[in-house]
Amino acid sequence: MLGEQPAPPPPAQPSGKTVETTYREAVKQAIEEAITRDDRVFLMGEDVGAYGGCYAVTKGLMEQLGEDRIRDTPLSESGFTGAGIGAAAAGMRPIVELMTVNFSLLALDQILNTAATMRHMSGGAFGVPLVIRMATGAGKQLAAQHSHSLEGWYAHIPGLKVLAPATVEDARGMLWTALEDPDPVLIFENVMLYNRTEMLDTNAAAVNISKAAIRRPGKDISLITYGGSLHKVMDAADQLAADGIEAEVIDLRTLRPLDDATILGSLARTRRALIVDEGWRTGSLAAEISARIMEQGFWHLDAPVGRLCSSEVPIPYPKHLEDAAIPQTPSIVAAAKSVMGR
Predict the structure, then answer these.
(1) pLDDT tens for each residue of 292-342
(2) 146 in catalytic set
């Protein structure tokens, strides 16, 4: 059960001017803008203030915006997430940063049993307009307690929205849309994207979070992915094109609720699908998407749906093993060719 949904924001009018921006800077700008525009918004989490955030996203914001709006918290994920829920219920619009998805499990009771259930348990009377940001994914040699991709677990939970911005534009625009939502929204930022640079329109603003995006059109196979895997999939699509395979690339953007219409519309054109998911294969988001395709699009299929996920091991520390544990461009190319029967 979700509350009355706000209308999608109108598309921002391009200014004709773009600036090169990192994903990290885009997230920072989004936080700064949200706090400046709305007195109810504040950010809290471990090391977000004086230290500037473990990935330097909030560096300098405490000096700029003050300690009331950028709040350092103790190492107590359950405690400050619960405080965020209380603040949201009292009319504020808090942004809680949980540093990394592995640590979010310490706040899972607050997220699942309180934030996600409040709308249902109040008979629809009120919800928890809370936004929780956290880093996810592997590739930084941070080993097994800091590197997993558990967004698929959260996408399992009714009462939540789950976002995975893969582009600088979405990193800039999803936060504001999320803050307009009357119910809890989780934003997963892949750690390998923070240093990524893209050109961003100077008028970049809130974005529609209700739709997946087709990042590359194609006619031979649908490559379905999200977050940090998107850019590997785009590279794989380039390599497949050189071999005469035109892949359509879908960036899911929102993992709950899934945009079935875009997935099935693509499948109707290509008749083959490969899902690339940095989560573990068993019980994965990829499994859910595969099942939906089988339920709603079976008669479009010319081949079984393919899935490429992380190896079912804790993410290793050594670089060569870490790389081997998660989907990479060569394995995506090989898996796509397998679905194509080549």
Answers:
(1) 999 999 999 999 999 999 999 999 999 999 999 999 999 999 999 999 998
(2) yes
Q: Which of 25, 46, 77, 151 is catalytic?
A: 77
Q: Give the pLDDT band (50/70/90) at residue 73.
A: very high
Cα–Cα distances (Å) from 203 to 15, 16, 19, 163, 315, in that order, read: 6, 9, 10, 22, 39
| Active-site position among 97, 146, 169, 288 | 146
**Each residue of 175-191: b (16+ CB within 10 Å) or e?**
bbbbbbbbbbbbbbbbb
* Cβ partners under 8 Å of residue 272, min gap 6: 220, 221, 222, 301, 302, 303, 339, 340
Is the distance from CB of 322 to CB of 256 less than 8 angstroms? no
Q: Which residue is it, tokens 């773009």?
A: 18
Residues 6+ apart with CB under 8 A from 325: 138, 310, 311, 313, 315, 316
Which sign does the torsion angle of CA 41, 42, 44, 50 carry? positive
Determine if the pTM surpasses 0.85: yes
120 assigned to active site: no
What are the pLDDT digits (tens) for 256-272? 999 999 999 999 999 99
